[in-house]
Amino acid sequence: MKPHDGMYIDRAWRPATTPDRIEVVNPADEQPIGTVPAGAREDVDAAVHAARAAFPGWAATAPAERAARIAGLRDALAARRDEIAETVTAELGAPLPFSQAVHADLPITVAGSYADLLGTYAFEEKVGNSTVYLEPVGVVGAITPWNYPLHQIVAKAVPALAAGCTVVLKPAEDTPLVAQLFAEAVHEAGFPPGVFNLVTGLGPVAGQALVEHPGIDMLSFTGSTAVGRLIAATVGAAVKRVALELGGKSANVILPSADLGRAVNVGVANVMSNSGQTCSAWTRMLVHQDQYEEAVALAATAAAKYVPGERVGPLVSAKQRERVRGYIEQGVKEGARIVAGGAEAPLDQGYYVSPTVFADVTPHMTIAQEEIFGPVLSILPYEDEADALRIANGTVYGLAGAVWAGDTDEAVAFARRMDTGQVDINGGRFNPLAPFGGYKQSGVGRELGAHGLAEYLHTKSLQF
Ligand code: NAP
Ligand code: MG
Question: Does any ligand 1 atom lie closer than 6 A to the CB of residue 173?
């Protein structure tokens, strides 16, 4: 795609108020691919004003009208499927088949799910002598990361628009181009002026200006726990609603009765997918001590199939690559054993990290506690189920996880005791309608499906 010079505000591509630009780099070959404006406080202010002015009109539309616009948005995204996939491959580095099947198709599905949901969703309910109306929260500030760049935008902007909210989006500085494509699709779908606005820019500048802006009613953020904590403090102090989708360190618990080979292979694939840049990735594999060495050997063999530059793309930036390499070195320093990969760069060019598997990991090691956000798997032994549960729940995070057992009921019984928002049972498939979000420091609130729509609604009760 050819980048837009301006920001999408009030249904027009407007020049930024400053000459500052962000250079977008292809992480596979380290070459610049374009620039976008680095928005300032004034740009955020213009976008929030446009969104405020548009709010009463959009909030008053019938759900069927919003459904028609969102169906149009889904179609406009679908018409750009190849361009979306190529753009995400260029700015994130994901292999093209993965960009097509996940980075493009998943958000198209999610957008469509909200067009469908508006056909049936009850925006009012009777409770005794009351009628409860569900009303849009207002102007939503949305701040998104680069790891699933279009999915993260759609998972916030589309339910907000479906609820009748208006939106100002600040996407990640590393992946602003697909955000511009999203704005093009919004435009084509005919949303009224100011209903959706895009300000590209840096987190501590444009992002912070949006968080602090008195004209927003809610802030929805996905990204690191460190930034999420800052945002929650500011938005909470203003007594506004906040939704946070933060980090994860999910456990993949393989019970002794499970199909070990399948559980390990699917577990490795889960971690290597998107170069390990997935907040819900199962980065800790928990295996019974009697099956431990067998599982380690299987995982090492599986990891070797993920060849950098072929099945595995680079990390998004040199900064992220260095961060992940630092964690690998830390793992070695703390006594874990590398059985695949390692900290050395696998290729001369591009921000690649070797798919890495650690054995002999103990629950308190840094690599077992902190989110690494790269293709790095830690395998931990457990003694019995109680020990497995303690290890699984023994981090500050609780976003996702997996349980494998010979019997579904056995797996479910274990999953019910995990402090986490999503658990896949024996390889259960991702469901784009199921609520997604975290326990503990993995976040506040839920995205996707009807629960994701409810995040953007207030209740008003009238008594008769
Ligand atoms: P991040 O700094 O939390 O960035 C997420 C978003 O917040 C980006 O749009 C970012 O802008 C913006 N931002 C940064 N500082 C801000 C501030 N002070 N006020 C308002 N907005 C701000 O995450 P990152 O640096 O991209 O990645 C670092 C780590 O975060 C990763 O290693 C990983 O552990 C975690 N992460 C988690 C997820 C997830 O899905 N849960 C996704 C991505 C990253 P810029 O793009 O300009 O920085
Ligand atoms: Mg950042």
Answer: yes
